[in-house]
Every structure is written in C-alpha cells, then in structure tokens.
Amino acid sequence: MNTSTTHRVLLVEDDVRLANLIVDYLKAHNMHVEVERRGDTVITKLLNYKPDIILLDIMLPGMDGMTLCERLADYFSGPVLLMSAMGSNEDQIRGFELGADDYVVKPVDPGLLVARINNLLRRHSKPVVEEGHGLSFGKLNIDPQTQMIRLADSSVDLTAHEFELLWLLASQAGQVLSRQYIYQCLLNIDFDGRDRKIDVRISRLRKKLGDNIETPFRIKTVWGQGYLFAPEAWNH
Prior knowledge:
This protein is an alpha/beta fold. The chain has helices spanning 16-28, 42-49, 65-72, 89-97, 110-125, 160-170, 179-186, 197-208, and strands at residues 7-12, 31-36, 53-57, 80-84, 102-105, 135-137, 140-143, 148-151, 154-156, 176-177, 219-222, 226-229. The chain folds into two domains: 7-125, 3-Layer(aba) Sandwich (Rossmann fold), CATH 3.40.50; 135-234, Winged helix-like DNA-binding domain superfamily/Winged helix DNA-binding domain (Arc Repressor Mutant, subunit A), CATH 1.10.10. The chain has eight helices and twelve strands. Pfam families: Response_reg, Trans_reg_C. It is found in: Cytoplasm. Residues 132-231 bind DNA.
C-alpha cells in the first residue's frame, strides 16, 4: 500500500470527460483532487481547499487560464501547471511570463502528467534556505525566516520562487552564477539552452526591486556567463 503523503490537487478543467480521466489517474497515485470548471471561481475555491498544486487549463469559461495564472500569484504560492491544446513556443513563453511553473500540451500521457506533478511538488517542497541570519545590502534587507524583503523602508512582495532565486543570487553576491548552476540549484535539471523559466523570474525580480529593465545594474546579465547580484548597487 502507498503510504506517501497525499497531495492536494486543484484541477481547473471544463472538459468533463478529460477531468474525470485525470481525477481517476491522480487518485490512483495517492493524490486528492478537487475539480473546478470555471476560471472566475478558482480563487474562492483555492482559498477554501488550499491545494498543494494547481493544474490549470487555458481555455475556460468565466476567465481564461492565462489571465487567471497572472492573478494567482496574489493568492497562491504553490506550483501552477498549465495545460493546453495550444503548444506553440509563444503560448508557452507567455505562460511562464505570467507565473506558470510548467506547461504541458494536451492530450498528455497520464504517466507523464504524474511525473511532472511530482517533480513540481518535490522542487517546491525543498527548503529555500537553512536557518540563519538575513542579508543586507545598502537599503535592501532579506529575511530568510519570514521571506520578508524590504527596500528603502518599503516591503516587496515576492512569490516563493522569486524569493528562492533572489536568495540564491544574494547569498553569492559579487559572483557570476551560470544558468546551468541556477537551474541545478533551483530546478534540479540541466539548462537546455531554450528554457526561459529563470530568465522570466529574473525579469520579474528586476521589476519588483526597482532595477533598470533596459540596463540592469542590480541584478546584472553577464553575457555568455550568467547573472550577477551587485552588492554595491543597493545604496540608492
């Protein structure tokens, strides 16, 4: 008998037949699943159900999955896996830019879907940092225990993934971290040269931390090498 932890999955899918197939398969793999069929009722549902992961179809009544994905960041810090029959690079890039953690093209093999879900849950459950003191750089203060960020006496709201990336960069301030290193540390996968997840998170971090988007000086891009957190750039 499977004695592993039962994870709570919120499946947002309006195709009843497909939803039933996914529910049956996930339940057979020790997951508890709730189904929501409209995009505009998802936030209320997740606040009551408190899922570990959300599987989100893009084409939904009430509110489309892309719009919903962007709004989820204010209510949900767990992983979001987008599902869509649209598999173009542009669709996938937009999904990642809006905060999705993974993207699968339907119809998806159920075994592959379970593997993707388990991978996201495993990555998300990793402790972000060990216990210890926070980091301070000029007007920037980072508290690893509360995951609170303060910049010039104002709080900065980050998602769990954004905080994890910021801590990795800031804890090795002044050093260039390659994309391969970042992918291994945060995603436990190799960088394949095409995946833009980390680039998207870097871009979102820069916006939230007041960096210059055109010529960033706080989180710098070192072309051909990776990213560098500049410790001297937070005094103003």
